[in-house]
Amino acid sequence: MLPTARKTGPAGRSGRLHSGLFSRPWTDYALFLILVGPNLALLAVFTYRPLVENFQFSFFDWNLSSPTSTFVGFENYREWASRDDTWQIVGNTVVFTVAAVVGSLVLGLVLALLLDRKLRGRNFVRSAVFAPYVISGAAIGIAFQFVFDPNFGLVQDLMRRFGLGAVPDFYQDPKWAMVMITVTYLWKNLGYTFVIYLAALQGVRKELMEAAEIDQASRWTTFRKVLLPQLRPTTFFLSITVLLNSLQVFDIINVMTRGGPLATGTTTMVYQVYEETFRNFRAGYGATVATILFLVLLIVTLVQVRIMDRDDQR
After folding, report:
1. How far apart are CA 156 and CA 169, in angstroms?
2. d(CA 69, CA 263)
3. Chain centroid to CA 49: how far?
């Protein structure tokens, strides 16, 4: 009699999976709940519950000082789509975010490459680059108000010394005001991307770099064909984290321009949430802007993850 063949199809694998999953002793599940339960509870209370409530508030006309609210359906969303300042604020958000993400990644990688070499005073320079990241954004915003002051600021003094002409009015021209807050943000947060890239460079496979040198590949070819592919996971991680951080910038804008000049010259969507909720006392409309921003962030993040997964499968 021939031996009966063991089932190895999907049904057999599924059976083994379920038997292995539920064959563990109850103490393992209790330990899992003890370790993971508090984190899940904190996420549910302080992250997901406010998220759901914010979505609910977006359908109401609610003044923060009033104990009652009025259900208005999608009226807040229709108002957001039809307001004259909406697309300027969206444009400000896109310009600032793109400049912040690209600038942070490029400058952080350049500094990491420079300071990965054996140089005199390297550790001091590394500390100096990272130090602004741990300083309060409000404090840096106040300091950079003097840097960009058109009358006696550092920028004004340097332009006068080098004969570069009149100093731009950073506090009256919306375009220069956007440049001002972008430069301030980059100076403060550059240390983050710098440190992450510097750590990633320590894990680069030296044999590949040596092979490129033996093949007499140019520095640009080595950088593009050998180094950058190895830094792709780090770049992907930084692109998501810097994107999320830049879209949530509030303190620098509030201290330096308060969303101006010309009312909305540097107003981003996050700053609009603050203005509508706490200045105009329109918590429902502020929740609408926050919900739209969350959906945009969710879509962008999912697209980034999808692109990364597709690259890994190649």
Report:
1. 10
2. 28
3. 22
Query: Which structure tokens are listed for 84?
Result: 């004259």
The owner of tokens 């998220």 is: 51
In this prediction, residues 68-91 reach a mean pLDDT of 94
Residues facing 60 on adjacent strands:
71
Enter the tokens of residue 243: 């994107």
> How many angstroms separate the most distant Cα atoms in the chain?
100
Structure tokens belonging to residue 56? 């609910």
Residue 306's pLDDT band (boundaries 50, 70, 90)?
A: confident
Rg of the chain taking only CA atoms, in angstroms: 26
For residue 70, list its beta bridge partners: 61
Structure tokens at 128: 């100096």
The verdict on whether omega for the bond into residue 261 sits within 30 degrees of 0, i.e. cis, is yes
pTM of the complete model: 0.84
Residue with token string 């609910």: 56
CA 97, 108, 234: angle at the middle one, nearest 5?
85
Q: Are 279 and 63 in contact (CB under 8 A)?
A: no
Give Cα 72 to chain centroid, integer Å.
33
197-225 pLDDT tens trace? 999 998 888 888 878 878 878 888 888 88
Each as own residue / partner, the long-range contacts of residues 113-120 (CB below 8 Å, 24 or more positions apart, any chain) are 113/201, 115/194, 115/198, 116/198, 116/201
| Token pair recorded at residue 179 | 């440049």
Distance CA 72, CA 58 (A): 9
SS3 category, 263: coil
Looking up tokens 């320590």 gives 202
Over residues 143-173, the pLDDT tens digits come to 999 899 888 888 888 888 888 777 788 889 9
pLDDT above 70 covers a percentage of the chain that reads 91
